[in-house]
Amino acid sequence: MEKVIEESKQGNSLILEGKATNTKKLFIESYGCQMNFSDSEVVASILTQEGFNTTQKLEEADLVLVNTCSIRDKAEQTVRKRLEKYNAVKKINPKMKVGVLGCMAERLKEKFLDEEKIVDLVVGPDAYKDLPNLIQEVEEGRNAVNVILSKEETYGDISPVRLQSNGVSAYVSITRGCDNMCTFCVVPFTRGRERSRDPQSILEEVQDLANKGYKEITLLGQNVDSYLWYGGGLKKDFEKATEMQKATSVNFCNLLEMVAKAHPKMRIRFSTSNPQDMTVEVIETMAKHDNICKSIHLPVQSGSNRILKKMNRLHTREEYFELIDNIERILPECSISQDMIAGFPTETEEDHQDTLSLMRKVKYAFGFMYAYSERPGTMAGRKLEDDVPKETKQRRLAEIIALQREHAAYRTQSHLGKVEEILIEKESKKSNLHWSGRNTQNTTVVFPKENYKVGDFVMVHIDDCTSATLIGTPVGYSDNN
Fold first, then answer.
1. C-alpha distances in angstroms, 116 versus 81, 87, 108, 146, 284?
2. Which residues belong to any copy of the MTTase N-terminal domain (predicted)?
């Protein structure tokens, strides 16, 4: 993961070792958040049972699926450019079918079939179990659309295939949807209301990963701190639950402790947190268990109370600082990362300076920073004029990124001279003589391979750093192996 970026991740095609008897070829690309990549693993699992093996070669695919992001206009434009590429291939291979999955499919629905003539099926994030029926519709010459949002956790009974896996780390989805209704965000409209997954099915998935030798999991959701299991249903309906359901309910703090205790040798991460929902109890649970990684992604979006209110962020600048203070008091070694939007409607220079001053106080380890782009259907898109000039947005964004780079360098320099536990994940991109892994703070560390291998926990002396990467020397195996 890049530590300082302006736009969403590039799409990744995914590989699956399917059944030898499968004869059809599936090509999947994913864009956007971690949840999309996790969902693509669910899709591959469903379609493996329908006779598909995946391929890296677009030209030989019988079915092409793109899992899309709608969080910014640029993300959608990237998908449309990919559809142009698919169209060129489809002219050579007219039997190839093309489907759009995910948030962009949910946002545009049937319009996608009119806007992009190449598209044969449109499938929202909660409708992947219907893919076999939809593919049958397409094979019979009809376009197919299913964008119905669910009121239950949709895929808790499906064991995802681990696509392009390093065999070391994996995502485990625990919640879907979001109830927060930030005015800039399409997620509540494209992924629906918050609902949580049965903790037993989560524990079973983690156990399966442990049995297969995985060393790290990330508990995943649009807002993990809102996790609440009381027997099924939407979080908003919890007050209607029976007294027995309430008494036996499981919140995120409970779940985190259950997973940590069940697998003391497995590293546990989680993403994403919402400032208004993160509790002191969660921070204390992180401090109590060594295997819960000491890093929190804590999006703030703006440092201005006036802008936070217009964004419908249900926290103030002061409440955010209080949460940061609690993290620093209980977990002083914890790294904190951010999401930040530059140029939200009506943002003044004073508002922008409030954002910079907030960053100076927190000194984030890394961040994801964007210029505001209006999203159709959101409250901001309907009610607020996008009145900050593009040049002003870009200048403010550049100032935010420059300050973040300064703080990232400050944070990496704080590791110099320390010996830290690193989980080896892959070969370094820059040298085939070095490994790459992460420490508990989620910072990338590279060091000589020597006799270590992927999946080993290694103690590494940190000798040098850049603003995003630590460089070290291995000193031996960790006791965690």
1. 11, 10, 11, 17, 50
2. 24-140
Question: What pLDDT was estimated at residue 2?
Answer: 31
Q: Are 194 and 235 in contact (CB under 8 A)?
A: yes
Binding-site residue positions:
33, 69, 103, 178, 182, 185
Listed in sequence order, the residues at least 6 apart from 407 whose beta carbon sits closer than 8 Å to its beta carbon are: 359, 360, 363, 364, 365
Q: pLDDT digits over 332-379, tens only? A: 999 999 999 999 999 999 999 999 999 999 999 999 999 999 988 899
**What is the CATH code for 419-477?**
2.40.50.140
- φ/ψ bin of 417: left (φ > 0), alpha (ψ from -120 to 50), beta (otherwise): left
Q: What is the mean pLDDT of the chain?
A: 90
- The SS3 assignment for 112 reads helix
SS3 of residue 279 by DSSP: coil
CATH annotation of 4-146: 3.40.50.12160
Mean pLDDT across 194-208: 94
Binding region for [4Fe-4S] cluster: 33, 69, 103, 178, 182, 185
Residue spans of the domains in the chain: they are 4-146, 169-413, 419-477
- N residues, the chain: 481
